[in-house]
């Protein structure tokens, strides 16, 4: 809608509304406003301090972000050494599965492959002794030398 | 007064006092008129205008990005008026009587008084449109930019407001609230 769309009686009202007596800004308002602006402009150093505070906050946030990304990247780097990340159905696994089937002829090909995978996974496990509360470091060393407790002697 | 609006913006962004004074001289009276229309209280209107200019000084670093300074000023005024309305009871503004200039007497002054009373009974969003279009002299496109609505919506609100005013002016005078 454009104002020209107003019917004549509303146009008349619009003219009266525009021509009605209205308050004028007091003379001292200009002085008051300019004085308030001058005070605010004089507060410039405080503004600069706020800017520096913002800069340091921003820098700290960026540094924290970089540390977090580095941490995640290092975690992923460690995980890349897991046996599961290697080709599970590679030629060596197939060879081991064939060997198992030679030794145990009645086992199915799927079961032989499964056993080969289990052997492959187990070959990459780190031998870490399970330290229990109360186990001294000497006992822990003995455990390492003797081998893990799940090895049947 | 700076030669171009860009010069003015540059002066404001640089914090030059004469640029702020020039801006007040250009828009102060219209901002005050619009503030009176939105708030209905002289003291609150004066404070709202001061809030706009102080806010402008505080935000001067971002002023170079402003494309429409007039719309920015009146949008700031609207924000300041809403803030002031939010701090006090809305009824305080709706029933307050803006003091008329002392010299105004006679039939025209009586019509002005009745129009002011009728304006204060309008819904706030319609009163805003009247204040911006009639009192501050903004076009509907500018009113739309200030209110962040379409120009059609601004014009519709204006028409509804005018129709309500016409009905109110037909009623017998009940004096101020």
Assign the structural class of chain A, choosing from mainly alpha, mainly beta, alpha/beta, alpha+beta, or little secondary structure.
Answer: mainly alpha
Tell me, rounded to a whole number, the average pLDDT of chain B. Answer: 83
Q: Proportion of β residues of chain B?
A: under 5%
Structural category of chain B is mainly alpha
Unreliable parts of chain A: none
Query: Total helix count of chain B?
Result: 9
The biggest sheet of chain B, with number of strands, parallel, antiparallel or mixed sense and barrel status, is: none
- Count the DSSP helices of chain A: 6
Q: How widely separated are the two ends of chain A?
A: 96 Å
Description:
The complex is a heterodimer of chains A (153) and B (177). Chain A contains six helices and no strands. With 153 residues, chain A is mostly helical. Among the domains of chain A are: 44-77; 84-123. Chain A is elongated. Chain B has 177 residues and is mainly alpha-helical. Chain B has one domain (5-170). Chain B is built from nine helices and no strands. The longest helix of chain B has 23 residues, at 17-39. The termini of chain B are far apart. The mean pLDDT of chain B is 83. Chains A and B meet through helix 1 and helix 2 of A and helix 2, helix 3, helix 6, helix 7 and helix 9 of B.
Features:
heterodimer; A: 153 residues; mainly alpha; 6 helices; B: 177 residues; 9 helices; 0% strand
Task: Give the structure's gist in a few sentences.
The complex is a heterodimer of chains A (153) and B (177). With 153 residues, chain A is mostly helical.
Q: How are the SSEs placed, and which strands pair?
A:
The complex is a heterodimer of chains A (153) and B (177).
Chain A: H1 8-19, H2 27-42, H3 44-79, H4 91-103, H5 109-123, H6 137-146
Helix pairs in contact in A: 4-5
Chain B: H1 5-13, H2 17-39, H3 42-58, H4 69-87, H5 90-95, H6 107-120, H7 124-135, H8 140-147, H9 151-170
């Amino acid at each position: 809608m454009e104002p020209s769309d107003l019917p004549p009686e509303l146009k008349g009202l619009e003219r009266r509304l525009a021509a009605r007596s209205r308050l004028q800004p007091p003379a001292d308002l200009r002085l008051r406003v300019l004085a308030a602006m001058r005070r605010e402009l004089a507060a410039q150093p405080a503004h600069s301090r706020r800017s520096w505070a913002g800069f340091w906050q921003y820098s700290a946030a960026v540094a924290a972000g970089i540390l977090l990304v580095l941490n995640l990247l290092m975690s992923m780097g460690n995980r890349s050494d897991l046996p599961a990340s290697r080709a599970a159905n590679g030629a060596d696994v197939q060879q081991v599965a064939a060997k198992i089937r030679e030794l145990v002829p009645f086992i199915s090909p799927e079961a032989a492959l499964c056993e080969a995978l289990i052997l492959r996974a187990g070959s990459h496990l780190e031998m870490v002794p399970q330290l229990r509360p109360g186990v001294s470091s000497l006992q822990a060393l003995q455990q390492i030398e003797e081998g893990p407790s799940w090895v049947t002697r | 007064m700076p030669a171009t609006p860009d010069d003015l913006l540059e002066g404001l962004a640089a914090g030059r006092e004469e640029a702020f004074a020039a801006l007040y001289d250009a828009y102060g009276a219209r901002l005050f008129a619009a503030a009176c229309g939105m708030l209905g209280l002289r003291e609150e209107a004066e404070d709202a205008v001061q809030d706009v200019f102080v806010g402008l000084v505080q935000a001067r670093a971002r002023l170079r990005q402003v494309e429409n300074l007039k719309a920015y000023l009146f949008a700031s005024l609207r924000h300041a008026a809403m803030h002031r309305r939010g701090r006090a009871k809305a009824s305080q503004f709706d029933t307050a009587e803006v003091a008329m200039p002392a010299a105004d007497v006679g039939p025209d002054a009586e019509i002005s008084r009745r129009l002011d009373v009728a304006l204060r009974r309008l819904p706030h969003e319609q009163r805003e449109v009247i204040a911006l279009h009639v009192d501050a002299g903004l076009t509907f496109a500018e009113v739309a930019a200030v209110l962040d609505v379409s120009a059609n919506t601004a014009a519709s609100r204006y028409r509804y407001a005018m129709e309500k005013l016409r009905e109110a002016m037909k009623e017998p005078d009940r004096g101020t609230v």
